[in-house]
Amino acid sequence: MADAAETIKPTVETVTKAVKAQGEQFKAQSEKVQAAGTQALKEGLEKSTAAFGELSAQSKQNLEALTASATAAQKGAEALSAQALSYGKTSWETGVAAAQTIAKARSVQELIELQTSYTKSAMETYMAEMTKMTETLTASVKDSFQPINARVTASVEKFQAAR
């Protein structure tokens, strides 16, 4: 039996060395896979964090653009309101003055001339005021959409650059 044990002993030692070598090789490969997985996870988290940061910045800029747009629209509405109020007041005062002048007319001919003159003046003033209000409205709309247009342009450029 001692002979059998002596014969098997080199085989067992050879198998033990082979198993040990394979175990170390497996351990080294496992460590490589683990390191690669850790690196990939780290890079993925860094990319996700950067993307969320960029998304947050984009959202902030979009909100700022909407706020600027609303502010511009409000200023435009205030300007139109002030113009309308001013025109209404001036128109009322002019109408009262015209009525007083017309009331003092000495003849039908003078009455018709005063009425015609007032009507012509009132129409010219009205048309000028409507033109002015239209220009104010157009400028207000343009100013209101400018911040939003700028954000859309920036977003489109960013998407095109990412392609």
Fold and architecture overview:
With 163 residues, the chain is mostly helical. The chain has one domain. 96% of the residues lie in helices and 0% in strands. It has two helices and no strands. The model has no long low-confidence stretch (mean pLDDT 89).
Walk me through the topology:
Layout: H1 2-103, H2 108-162
Helix pairs in contact: 1-2
Give the gist of this structure:
With 163 residues, the chain is mostly helical. The protein has helices at residues 2-103, 108-162.
State which percent range the strand residues make up.
under 5%
**Helix-strand makeup class:** mainly alpha
Q: Indicate the mean pLDDT.
A: 89
In percent, how helical is the residue content? over 70%
Poorly predicted ranges (pLDDT <50, ≥5 residues)?
Answer: none
Query: Treating each run of at least 4 consecutive H or I residues as one helix, how many helices?
Result: 2
Number of strands: 0
Element-level helix/strand string: HH
Q: State the domain count.
A: 1
Distance between the first and last residues' Cα: 77 Å
Q: Main beta sheet: strand number and arrangement?
A: none
The whole-angstrom Rg is 44 Å
Identify the overall geometry: rod-shaped
